[in-house]
Amino acid sequence: MIEDHLAKSPERFFAGGENLTSADFQMVFALEAWLSRATGLAPLGEHTRKFVENVHARPAYKRALEKGGEYSYA
């Protein structure tokens, strides 16, 4: 369902816009958790992985990790 949604407009974020929204942050956190525990789970689709990569590539995301450090899903 997520993959299909993102495939409809691959250049946009999850909420459908050109800018990130709180929905995008909520979604990327869930997808990061999925990726960190991928054993036994279905692989993420191409568009879903690209969405996560696009968020990770943003300068603000990188600055947040520099300030707060990596996080875990324990």
TrEMBL record:
InterPro entries: Glutathione-S-Trfase_C_sf (IPR036282). This is GST C-terminal domain-containing protein. It comes from the Eukaryota. It comes from Rhizoctonia solani.
